[in-house]
Amino acid sequence: MVLTLHIGNKNYSSWSLRVWLLMRELGIPFNEVLHTFDVISGNETEFKTFAPNARVPCLHDQGQVVWDSLAIFEYLAESWPVWPNQSGARSYSRSVCAEIHSGFEAIRSQCPMNCALEIRVDDVPIEVERDLRRLDDMIVAGLTTFGGPFVGGGVFSGIDAFLAPMLLRVSGYHLPLSNAARDYQTMLLARSELTQWVNEARKEPWREPSEDQATLARGELVNDFRPGPH
C-alpha cells in the first residue's frame, strides 16, 4: 500500500518540505494530501483528523501514523536509505538534522520561508548572522569531510533534505554564505524536485497575510513571483 503524506501550504511549510523532498528524491512512492492553513479559524480541528499533534507533516502507512519530520525520517530509514552508508557521515547527518530541528530560532523567526517572495536584507541582525555562520560551518565541514557533492557524501540523503528549507531562506533573503556553501546551495536549489516544489508554491492561491508581512518587513522587495495582483 502506498504511503500517504499530509503536508501544509508549500509556500510556507518548511517542515512539510523536508519530508516531501526526501521522499521524492529517494523515489519513495506516496500520495500527497495538501491541507491549507486556515488563517481565520486555525488548523487544529481539521489537522487533528489526521495528525495527533494537529500539525504537518504527518505520514500514514497502513494504519500506522508518524508525525514530526524527524520522526518520519527515522521511520522511513527502516526501509529506505535516508542516511549515508558511511558510519561517520551517518552520525554527522543525524547530529546536524537534530540541531536544525531544535535550533536556528533567529533565522526561523526573522526569515520565515516564503517561496513566492524575494527580499534583499541589507542589515542582517547579529543573531541571524550567528545562525548563518553555524549553518555555513556545518555545510562546509560535511562537504570537506565526506567529499561532496552532497553534505553527507556522494548521494542525496536526509541531511540535504533538512538543509533545503534553510537554504531557500538564505536565497530568498539574499543572505551571505561562503563560496563553498554557496556553490552547494546553487546545486541543491537547482534540483528538479526542489524546483517543482518552489514552482507549485508560487502558483498557490492561498496567502497568509501575517506571514507575508513578516517577510516583507525584513527588507526591500525584489520579486513577487505569485500570479495575479499583488
Order of adjacent strands in the largest pleated sheet: 2-1-3-4
Please tell me how large the radius of gyration is. Answer: 17 Å
* SS class: alpha+beta
Mean pLDDT: 96
Helix-strand sequence: EHEHEEHHHEHHHHHE
Q: Total helix count?
A: 10
Provide an overview of this structure:
- The protein folds into 2 domains: 74 residues, Glutaredoxin, CATH 3.40.30.10; 109 residues, Glutathione S-transferase Yfyf (Class Pi), Chain A, domain 2, CATH 1.20.1050.
- It is 49% helix and 12% strand.
- The strands form 2 sheets. The chain has a 4-stranded mixed sheet, with helices on one face.
- Helix 1 packs across helix 7, helix 4 packs antiparallel against helix 6 and helix 4 packs across helix 7.
Secondary structure topology:
Elements: E1 3-7, H1 14-25, E2 30-34, H2 44-47, E3 58-61, E4 64-67, H3 69-76, H4 87-102, H5 105-110, E5 117-120, H6 126-146, H7 158-172, H8 179-189, H9 192-203, H10 209-216, E6 220-224
Parallel strand pairs: 1-2
Antiparallel strand pairs: 1-3, 3-4, 5-6
Helix pairs in contact: 1-7, 4-6, 4-7
Question: What attributes does this structure have?
Answer:
230 residues, alpha+beta, Glutaredoxin, Glutathione S-transferase Yfyf (Class Pi), Chain A, domain 2, 2 domains, two-stranded antiparallel sheet, 12% strand, globular
